[in-house]
Amino acid sequence: MIRKHFAGFVASALAMAVTAQAFAGTVTTDGADIVVKTKGGLEVATTDKEFSFKLGGRIQADYSRFDGFYTNNGNTADAGYFRRAYLELGGVMYTDWAYQIAYDFSHNSGGDNRSEDGYFDEASLAYNGFKPVSIKFGRFDPEFGLEKATSSKWVTAQERTAAYDLVDWTNSHNGGLGIQASGNAGDSLYGSVGAFAKDATNQDKDGDSTKQFNLRGVFAPMHEAGNVLHFGINYAQRDLSDTAFDGRIRSRLGMRGVSTDGGQDAGTNGNRLTLGGQNNTPAGAYDTDQAWGLEAAWAMGPFSVQGEYIKREVEADSAAFSDIKADGYYGQLAYTITGEARGYKLGKFDSIKPSNKQIGAWEVFYRYDHLSVDDDNGAFANVSDIEGKVHNVGLNWYANESIKLSGVYVKAKVDNAQNAAGDDSGDGFVMRAQYVF
């Protein structure tokens, strides 16, 4: 029902926009003059910048084929799905207040078990009257890591690093609400701190939601496109005392098609790597779940290199359980053949804007992901650390500022784990068509 009303609102907004363009005439206001922009969506703003309204979105359509460890029987399977299908509404009101609403029709950008009818990926309100500090509250993702801070529209590889799968709770709102304060000192220092209450999938025995705390700090002495030196640190903690939860640490190893949240996937033949933990972890088994992260990046002209290191520890609260420890990292190299530099601002990378409108911008990249879990509980008690290693080699074509076509070859290798057919490695490729408006 929510989706029906929201779609109706969007259709009405688009109809008004089309009507406004179809029938030329005089527009009058009872206040400041209005500026209308149609490049990259529809944006309406007053010249005094007191009010604004922007309607936009993104569509990412993926197709992939994969085999080996990525399937239970080792044979080739494929998947076609919308990775993201966002409709976004945002703007400013009364100068100091900002709002952002993002509705995902694809059912594929959040965690497992989202409503099949789509959901609100963000619905937030921010107060910016204490500049340079901004206070935001509502539903939005916590901040943890450079790749997560960078919009999904402009991350280099189609999927963010597999190392994030070790700490998937750190940068997902999981249907809950939060409050966050963020600020900057010029363009070289940025920080944020937030507190979040997660949804009903993780509750203690009294029905109290899981509470989470996030902290991120960035120092970027060089912070212009094509001239970047970036360092960052992250910390996140959640309270699991007296909480029953799904404690599995799993990874798709860069191949979303093995198990999508919405759309075609490999079905029962899709195989995800389980590195540790267990489903239906009983209340009282664990206490504090902590994650740390370090990030670094350097860019010079069309060349960039970046990496992150992540460490997690789930502290046991019962003599029947032992601590679970995990760590992961990635390193990435990227080069724009046509010479353009990646954009950068306030602790995150931004888009590549083609300088040649005829051929667009062409980018090649390589990324290596590594993740490992040490779990001495249950089925993992007599198994050495389970590790996943993923190589990603890809090509991005930024046809213009709205359209991006991508292709990536992915090769995965796991240690101390196999699929049902005895495979411990797998290959695949993913193609994406993206439209941003």
From TrEMBL:
<feature type="signal peptide">
    <location>
        <begin position="1"/>
        <end position="24"/>
    </location>
</feature>
<dbReference type="InterPro" id="IPR010870">
    <property type="entry name" value="Porin_O/P"/>
</dbReference>
<feature type="region of interest" description="Disordered">
    <location>
        <begin position="256"/>
        <end position="280"/>
    </location>
</feature>
<dbReference type="Pfam" id="PF07396">
    <property type="entry name" value="Porin_O_P"/>
</dbReference>
<feature type="compositionally biased region" description="Polar residues">
    <location>
        <begin position="266"/>
        <end position="280"/>
    </location>
</feature>
<protein>
    <submittedName>
        <fullName>Porin O</fullName>
    </submittedName>
</protein>
<keyword id="KW-0732">Signal</keyword>
<dbReference type="InterPro" id="IPR023614">
    <property type="entry name" value="Porin_dom_sf"/>
</dbReference>
